[in-house]
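Protein modeling request. Please complete all fields; requests missing the sequence field cannot be processed.
Requester role: graduate student
Desired output: 3D structure, token encoding
Chains: 1
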Amino acid sequence: MARTGARRARRYDPDRRTRILDAALDVMAEHGTAGTTHRTIAARADVPLGSVTYHFASLADLQAQAFARYVELQSATFEKLFEDVETHEQFVEVLVDLVHGGPARHRSAVLGFELHLAALRNPDLRVLTQAWTWESRAVLARFTGPGTAARLDALLEGMIMHALLAAEPEPREATRAAIVQTLGPATHTPRGDP
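Delivered output (194 residues):
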């Protein structure tokens, strides 16, 4: 029996791969890496399940590429936070805001910790987290010098994790005091002393 209907045309969708990666990040932020499946990602991206498996060799590959996209986007966002900082006080205020961020920063922090947790078991992701750490510290070091930047980076990660887990938010003044103590005397000027 001959087919009477024409073959259905494939929909042109040049952004499908990126949409799948962004959907994977949304799903991982909501359900964690352990609760992420091809099916939940496909549903979030509004694509057929076959599209997900076509573009990515495995779920682990998809998660790794999504995390790489996340780090790229976060690195650019982090850099942008400090674009207009000209004084020590402005620098401190940006850091306090980073710890006490709103919903967008909450999602970002959750994904960051999901990435770090996954990296404990995946050496390839460990390379990604290490590169991200170096990039973040390089941004901070423009304002503080490298030694202080490393200590500040560790403090910020710890404070952000505590902020995510706390039943009661830490007062901004307590956060500011911890950051100022870690920075020490304002000897570096933004974008000045290397």
